[in-house]
Amino acid sequence: MRVRQLQTFLREQKIARTSDLALCRGMRIGIDAIYFFRSLKGVTDPLSDASNSLSPGFFASVDEQLQAMDRLQIQPLFVFQGMQPRSHLLLSVQMMGFAMHEAWALYNRGDRQAAITKFGQGPYKEFSESSIQLLINYLKSNGREVVRAPYFATSQLSYFVQESLVDAIVGPPSVLLFNVPRTIIALDFVRNTFEWLELDEILSRFEMDKEQLVDACLLAGTEHCVTYPLLPQAFNFSNVIDCIKQAPVIKYLSQLPTRDGLAEYVDGYCVAKSLVMYPLVMTINGDVAPLFRRLALPNDYYKIVGGRLPRNLYYLMCEGLVSVQIPFALALNEWMDEPNPHADSLEYRDLLQDVREYQCRAIGLVVLKLDKTYHNRHIRFPGQVTLKGPTPHLKNGVVMIPNTCPARIWTFTSDELNAELNRQKCNNVDVSMLLRWHFTEKMPKPLVPTHQLMAQQELDPKTLGAKVYMMLLDNMGYFTRELGPTAFGKVLANTQMSNVGLVVLELLKFGLFTGDPLEPPLDVSHASELYQTTPQDPQEALDFKAINLVARLSSLCPMEHLDTMTWRGMVDFDIACFNAIVRCLSRSINYLAEGCLAYLVLGYITRMELIPTPVMPLYSETDAFMGVVVKALLNESAPTQRQLLDSLAVKFPNCLHLQKDLNNLANFWQQLSSLVGALHDLVGLGETMEKFRRGTKILKTALEKAGVKADAL
């Protein structure tokens, strides 16, 4: 929970103390992971965030902090936030979306610095679920202790302090609202200092009690209740302190001018107050229970946090193996979409509706292992505004029940899997390798599982990962009913692109493998400045769409030779919109993979330790800057190779070895051309293939001009 301007105010009042970091040597410290990493410059980079891309300095920044902790022998326990009630509209990233489009308009007008400043503004900007999953798995792969709280990270940290499981905690000042006596609010490994706050000192300085401090924070505003409407526009936290010391909250509630305003504000206030008064945490014995055991939960508390879930499902979420969206949907009967991207499009919003099938099936796979009362739950999926059709209209929220069609599981053993890996001379299990094995008809056929069959399955991490992949492909429609190969399955089996190839085929399936201009949603500001229009001349239109297609697809090829600073090169709105589409599609596939994993392990708790960290998530975020580099290359008019490379070096100073990255792109494009060509031979791609071939020809010419060998294209 974040409180408006609380941290700034406490620093201004010099209540935040500074001490030598050596005092923390050897300590076990609980860390609010999102709060901590969000403050790191390399992790949250304005231009990378705007481009819907991972920052070039993401891993370097995380590693730097981990190494600094190791030097002081600090043992961190990273706690990530879990399920949270939906934020209020005024503090949500939906409002941030309007600011982001204004920032893009500034960028397109040439005011780069003002745009970067606006991109970086966002005290309520959230990490995406993809970023959270990436951090969880990266920290785990580095041997760090990670826990995902069932609800608030701050209340979970308070529980760890209460149980003496940590020596200190790092978190926002709001953690003090959960009866923590003191908290560290900042670690500075450069100056070897840390800032910390003490609850008693705050209460003493302002002559308040704990209850008054809570009410002051709620009047100031959190993500669950807006700032008290009658406070001065030039807000300062001292305003709410003065208010609370003069009169109780009930007086200020009665001063609201309209009944509607009163009801809306009181509702938000009560939700936020309940979350502070009755926080839920994961206990050391694996139960989810109130932090303050002496207080009985209100009878209608479930309306805020949802119903109680099975213990094993909480466990999967707390281990970071299942995203919060699936348990959130089962607890509150509502699917929680990720925040709007920083570059929005109508195609993105339509895709949100198109992938409901995958999300519904992911929920269905989980509920198949739960009590039958979950099978007919009505899950509400939010609607979106769409311009497709004769007039703009709002797509109403869709209510669906989980897709509980019978699942099939594969029965191959670890010995059979290893024998096939040796036959194919593969080191790793991936979707293409498994499809090749399946289509030889030597893979044991899947069966509809029974309790006895599931109990007899002996799984090692590699075999478990392989069975998750096969269930995923089955649920995505890559096999016929008779388990024969579909056209998509055939081409994916014969490519080296594996997971990236799966995304390419899904883009084709949903009609997003295109260079046509993206359409603006109804509620996007500055649309005329941001969205492209097709040239009138037929040949120019073909080249325009071909270049768009090449640039967008190039974003799927990560750049390997970037410095570890924040992104300092050009960005492009169209590429950013496409990156948002790819991120949405990848996350939906991840949800389905998580459903498959949960299906295989729920009810068999001994299998939890077998789950290999790299298997989940199937797709992790990467940098997506190759697309904007390629777009600049294709539109570059420099006459010589040297001038061309010099021009690109000025536009993209992060690129340390641009020609090496372009060589990687040439290899990537060769594999992509083989995959698309094979699918065209089977089903015919018509005009899409014409644009792709034209784009390949333009790309080949540009790569050769840059000194990159592209004969195979």
UniProtKB/TrEMBL annotation:
Q: Mind telling me which SUPFAM superfamilies this protein's record contains? A: PIN domain-like
Q: Where is the Post-transcriptional regulator MKT1 N-terminal domain?
A: 298-380
User: What sequence ranges are listed for the domain Post-transcriptional regulator MKT1 C-terminal?
Assistant: 473-699
An individual GO BP term: regulation of translation
What are this entry's molecular-function GO terms?
Answer: 5'-flap endonuclease activity; metal ion binding
| InterPro entries the record matches | MKT1_C (IPR022039), MKT1_H3TH (IPR037314), MKT1_N (IPR022040), PIN-like_dom_sf (IPR029060), XPG/Rad2 (IPR006084)
- CDD domains recorded: H3TH_MKT1, PIN_MKT1
Q: Name one Pfam family in it.
A: MKT1_N
Q: Which UniProt keywords apply?
A: Magnesium, Metal-binding, Translation regulation
Q: Which family does it belong to?
A: Belongs to the XPG/RAD2 endonuclease family.
> What protein name applies here?
Bifunctional Post-transcriptional regulator MKT1
Identify the species of origin: Babesia duncani
Phylogenetic placement of the source organism: Eukaryota, Sar, Alveolata, Apicomplexa, Aconoidasida
